[in-house]
Design brief:
By secondary structure, the chain is an alpha/beta fold. It contains 14 helices and 13 strands.
Length: 417
């Protein structure tokens, strides 16, 4: 196994910010990407320097510390401008990776499906396009005129043109895959199977919860962004089927390229009938509040904030009695569950069923034998059949139908009194 790269963490934080708390996420992202943070340097100021990111004195300190720690890559807890990144690379004579680039790298490692890989490539291209100038800066320094015309100058434009062409191609492919996904989604809608999306901060146990609810086999390794591609599985409760989709985990300041580029998994949240907002009950209270706020912000950005939502406090097996009481006081309507031990899962299934109960009505139908297709329609709707009796006149069933579908079967309704 290869030794991890040695990473040096750099950040500009506001006055009074807790650097340990603020940088914990970046350092966890680094480890997920295969980089071990060996040192950090923080400058407290209102805004990063527009040219050098940190001030001149801090830059000199950075160069000295970076060299002394034998670091191999600088990790910056912000999205750098192309000029800031180039300057830092020139000063350190080393690679500089900003927060967005780091997250994109992790996404590239974890994308599994063809669509996920295309989305990663698109996000990376859109991130790299404004930074391509740096590849040819040795020619640009010469200015125009003799010696600068020809292949060097044209190469930059050629690369940009090829990149833009690739971006257009990827967008076209993703649009086609989106249409196919929409067809599959409409098919699920047609069957009236309720859909539930798991949303939440990365690493709060959404995939473990999906596995526990549906007996799925989604990877649950303890790494950030382990799940990138949407995974949908089903479970039954009291004869009714429900679909549950695991979505990509959120982080603070999720790069905008990813909010747009990862439409596949975020759209599953957007079209769900119910969103289960899963949180880590074992996290410190301040971090838990921040994570909830971060997820709410992304749901607002993708216009999913008005969807019915349930807060689910996971990992309750790691919380003592006092901690559980505090969570109950702070989030009185939230369900406390443990996907690991199974505690509270039956209550969660019942809560999901309760959310959809009013959408269905029990109806007794008599379906003539010569119209057997109607019985198939019932099953296609996913309607639970509570009773079935074969009579001389046809099949007598007691079914729970979606209210808006009752009209289709109105002529077969029999008096239940």
């Amino acid at each position: 196994m290869e030794a991890p790269e040695r990473g040096f963490v750099l950040a500009v934080l506001g006055q009074g910010a807790d650097e340990r708390e603020e940088l914990a996420e970046l350092e966890e992202l680094a480890r997920t990407a295969g980089v071990e943070p060996v040192a950090r340097l923080v400058q407290h100021r209102a805004q990063p320097d527009p040219r050098t990111y940190v001030g001149k004195g801090k830059l000199a300190e950075l160069k000295e510390s970076y060299k002394a720690t034998s670091s191999e890559v600088l990790l910056v807890d912000d999205e750098l401008s192309p000029s800031q990144q180039r300057l830092l690379e020139n000063e350190l004579e080393s690679r500089v990776v900003d927060r967005t680039q780091l997250i994109l790298d992790i996404f590239a490692q974890h994308a599994v499906t063809a669509e996920g890989k295309l989305q990663v490539e698109l996000a990376q291209l859109e991130y790299n396009l404004p930074r391509m100038r740096g590849m040819w800066q040795h020619l640009e320094r010469l200015g125009g005129g003799v010696g600068t015309r020809g292949p060097g100058e044209s190469q930059l434009e050629t690369d940009r043109r090829l990149a833009r062409r690739r971006v257009s191609l990827l967008k076209g492919r993703l649009k086609e895959l989106g249409r196919q996904r929409d067809i599959r989604r409409k098919e699920r809608r047609r069957t009236q199977v309720p859909t539930v999306a798991l949303a939440g901060y990365t690493n709060v146990g959404k995939s473990t919860l999906l596995n526990a609810l549906t007996d799925a086999d989604v990877s649950v390794r303890n790494r950030l962004f382990e799940t990138l591609d949407p995974t949908t599985r089903g479970f039954e409760h009291e004869g009714r089927r429900y679909l549950v989709t695991d979505t990509v985990g959120f982080v603070r300041r999720l790069p905008h390229q990813l909010v747009e580029g990862f439409a596949a998994t975020l759209e599953e949240t957007l079209v769900a009938d119910l969103v289960l907002h899963v949180v880590d009950g074992s996290a410190p209270p301040e971090r838990l509040s921040e994570q909830i706020a971060s997820v709410n912000a992304v749901l607002l950005e993708i216009e999913a904030h008005e969807l019915p939502r349930e807060l689910v406090v996971n990992k309750i097996d790691l919380v003592d009695e006092e901690g559980r009481r505090r969570l109950s006081n702070r989030y009185p309507d939230a369900l406390q569950v443990s996907a690991e031990s199974g505690e509270g899962l039956e209550e969660l299934r019942a809560r999901i069923a309760e959310r959809f109960a009013e959408r269905f009505e029990s109806v007794r139908l008599l379906l003539p034998y010569n119209e057997g297709g109607k019985l198939n329609e019932l099953y296609a709707l996913g309607a639970p059949i509570d009773e079935r009796e074969d009579t001389t006149d046809g099949v007598l069933v007691l079914a729970r139908l979606p209210r808006r579908e009752i009209r289709r079967f109105a002529s077969y309704v029999v008096n239940t009194g």
